[in-house]
Amino acid sequence: MTSSGELAIGGSSDIVLVRQRVRAAALEVGLSLVDQTKIVTAASELARNALVYAGGGRVRIEIVRNGVRMGLRLAFGDDGPGIPDIEQALVDGWTTGTGLGLGLGGSRRLVDEFDLRSAPGEGTLITVTKWTR
Amino acid sequence: MGVTLTVQPDAGRRRIEELLRQNEDRVLKRWLEITAAVSAGQADRDDTAARLPEIYQALRQSFTGEENLSDLHGLLAELSRSRARQGFSPAETANAVFGLKEALYEVVEDDGTPEALRGFIWFSKIIDDLGLFTFETYAAAREKIIIDQAEQLLELSTPVVKLWEGIVAVPLIGTLDSARTQVVMEKLLQALVETGSEHAVIDITGVPAVDTQVAQHLLKTVMAARLMGAECVISGIRPQIAHTIVTLGIEFGDIVTKASLADALAHALRRSGVEVAGSRRTRVALRTEEA
């Protein structure tokens, strides 16, 4: 771990800020243009999920190292209602809101590592990592 | 604040009122000096110098009856707003008000009576409240400026341009949120009606990331245009965006998408029956359409 920062997600303007910070961090890590766009898009999805379904949350942006490879790790946490059925939530097209239902499953495909911890009433913690190639 | 003024009509308060009346010129002069020290330029100094005597009078009048407090608040709000527009920090504005304490303290010290000192505590609290009031007004004024600018930006950033007879384009730049999509959709539909266009190009070259929300907004805009009988082409899909859209699993269905605005224009021209003949000198040949 070389650097990190935590941002609060409280409104839609914060989502824009999260995207900008993640893009800056992705540049610093040296991710390719495609991978930059992917992690930024995943960050956008997860930040919006935290805002829409939990009323807000926070994200921790970390630059991580695994041997010679550098990576960008984002941890999205919220104290919302939690996800009762995680398998179901990851199914494409399934949503309890008004979106396309692709955010969670799509984000998992956009990153290299995806870890989702949630239980009803205990909030949600999603950690994603993208490694350089 | 009005309550504090009427509940404590004690000796200290009366002494302060007297001092403020008797030493008006001296206190006012000192207050101007203190305020000028924190002001940046001559113009600001003149502006403030013109306002302070008025505020001083309103403050003195506010001690005689609480209904006059609105006058004082009005003057302070004006000072605050004018300083917010000139780019002063809220601390500088509040400091201008707090400067009156320092100015009066010199008079109180010379007076030296216990009543004056007790009264100064009371006066101090009033000035603190007034300082906080300017702070609040300042923040509200700034907020207003930001909201106005955001609205202006919203207007500015969504032009609908006519590319050809019957073809309009919307070059989108920046983040597409719900509010902007609403504006884009309204403007596009309006332009379709006004120009009688049957083709619209939505160019997303300037959109940094397409997530599911942006995609959903785009799809809705295309659907709305279709309901009005217009065909939409989405252009400006860069490689990394294409990659991301596929990975996310977003399906654009039968919506025509193109890599560049030029491709989209060529497509729309072909569809509306205009043939672009490629030769050394680019010629555009119009074929009459039989209805």
Describe this structure in words.
The complex is a heterodimer of chains A (133) and B (291). Chain A contains four helices and five strands; from the N terminus they run βααββααββ. With 133 residues, chain A is of the alpha+beta class. Chain A has one domain (3-131): Heat Shock Protein 90 (2-Layer Sandwich). Chain A is globular, with a radius of gyration of 14 Å. Chain A starts with a strand and ends with a strand. The model of chain A has no long low-confidence stretch (mean pLDDT 90). By secondary structure, chain B is of the alpha/beta class. Chain B folds into two domains: 2-147, Globin-like (Orthogonal Bundle), CATH 1.10.490; 161-286, Transcription Regulator spoIIAA. Chains A and B meet through helix 1, helix 2 and helix 4 of A and helix 9 and helix 10 of B.
